Amino acid sequence: MSTTPTTTKDLKHTYTVLGGSRGGDAAAERPLSILLLNRGTRVHRSETLAGMEHLLPAEIISIEGVRNNYDLEPLARKHPDIRFIRLHEPVSIGEYLNLGMEEASGTFVLVVWNDMKLNQISLKVLERVAENTGLCSVPVLSNQKNEMIPSIISPGFQKKRLKVLPFVPKGESVPSLFPYDHCGLYRRQSFQLLEGFDPLISNPYWQLLDFGFRAHLWGEKINSSNQFRITMTAETEVDDTTPDAGYRRFYLKNLFPKFDKDRGILPLTRFLSYYLRGGASFAEAFREFKVIRSWVKLHQYRFVQDARRITDLWEVPEV
Fold first, then answer.
1. For residues 213 and 187, is the Cβ–Cβ distance under 8 A?
2. Which of 36, 131, 172, 205 is most buried, taking the most CB atoms under 10 A from its CB?
3. What is the spatial distance between Cα 155 and Cα 315, in angstroms, rounded to a whole number?
4. How far apart, in whole angstroms, are the C-alpha atoms of residue 114 and residue 181?
5. Which whole number is the average pLDDT over 48-61?
6. What DSSP designation does 1 have?
């Protein structure tokens, strides 16, 4: 069993890897990695991991938090093929995914939580899903009563204010703004080219919105797939939509840029509007605006549209 301290390339977070292996012929032969995120109760962990091992011939990576992990080494010994990653400091959910994508070797990465049950998923099913996967295919999610969860996210503007509405998925390949609860089948290379989740946005809600809008601004696709289904065995927490510094960063990166001919731009003339709406001091607002304006310029030719066009052309799912 390996216990390797390491540091993420961009985020500078230290973590320890227990068990499993990375690279080599065995990993190269696996088109799929499973990234298991952990929350809530730690009861029946071994049974959950054993179920995953028998379900799919995939590389399995379990991302652990900073809470007491006294049972981690025994688990790693019991499941030697699973790689456990233990963080040494608290990070956002998006950073967990960034780290997991760096560690994964599969062409596709299935992201699930430990309180989710995979329903009749086989490698053949996921291969069919993967054929139509752009950046991410999101599953049909149900609760313990077998009721479908509104997990398709549609964006729009109402009196110049962004509105994000959830719908129950109906049909195949229904577009979604972002993967609900981060869950889905991701194309790893596309995720990394998109630069993953923004580590400077800590609130999961604004982080997901930033990820989803950036994906569509840069021409990626996030669609539902009714070919694979997942049951959520616990209630999800209510999203914290409180405007904060992460909200301002999301807003600047995604809603303020304009698409001009063949590139994205953030005109200096939009600073005053940002300052009046943002709630930050003049100096802080100008610093934030300057940083994001430089970021937009760096990535200007990756933009294929702006937020207004995304929402104007978005087809709202049938109710």
1. no
2. 36
3. 10
4. 12
5. 83
6. -
